[in-house]
Design brief:
With about 240 residues, the protein is α/β, with parallel strands linked by helices. Helices cover about 35% and strands about 15% of the residues. The protein has a domain of about 150 residues: 2-enoyl-CoA Hydratase, Chain A, domain 1 (Alpha-Beta Complex), CATH 3.90.226. Helix 2 packs parallel to helix 3.
Amino acid sequence: MNMALLSWIGNRTPVMVMLAGFSMALDSQWLRELVNSVPDKVPVVSIIKLEGVIAAGGGGSNINLDGIRGVVDSAFSQQNLKLVCLVINSPGGSPVQSDLVYRYIKRAAEKKQVEVIAFVEDVAASGGYWLACTGSKIFATPSSMVSTIGVISSGFGFHEIIMKYGIERRVITAGVNKSVMDPFKPIKDTDMTIMRGLLNSTYKCFVDHVKNSRGDRLGGSKDIFSGEFWTGEKVS
């Protein structure tokens, strides 16, 4: 990953960036060459900002398919569209919503035959990095936090507290594993087996997604998939 700065430039070939009705120019030799490849037209670079926790619902405060569908459709509907930039600032969240958003943007890019690149602001961790992999290139500042390719599930156990106060837990189920990970009952070996299976399955999807998206750019280090995170400078 390399550092990318957004700033104003006076260039003979203007670059119009569409973001909720506001335009700016990008200072990049690579972008100058890109826009100069389309003579006699004003090329458009659309920006899609993906900021917040990745989760269903949230009334617009979260990143999810329902929330970004209209923004993505608008970004890819611009005339003379040459490039779409994802500006990402997310600590991650739902692997399902991460994949749905990724696939929706990817399909739009393939349909319009437009390149997508990703810019990392403060953080693109876990599901945020899943989204960053939508881009053919990923740019970050030296202090951006990136990666943490892994899956986690956490909670609390309260069974000793309710026993201390003489509270009896009453649960009736149909299905032996219906009450897996009940926080008011001691954890069972079967609970751990089930949860490990779920986490490992999701983790494999994440690893495969990153490998397929980034390819040879990953290098050969196994630490990449350890769940650790790094600064943009460390992984450049």
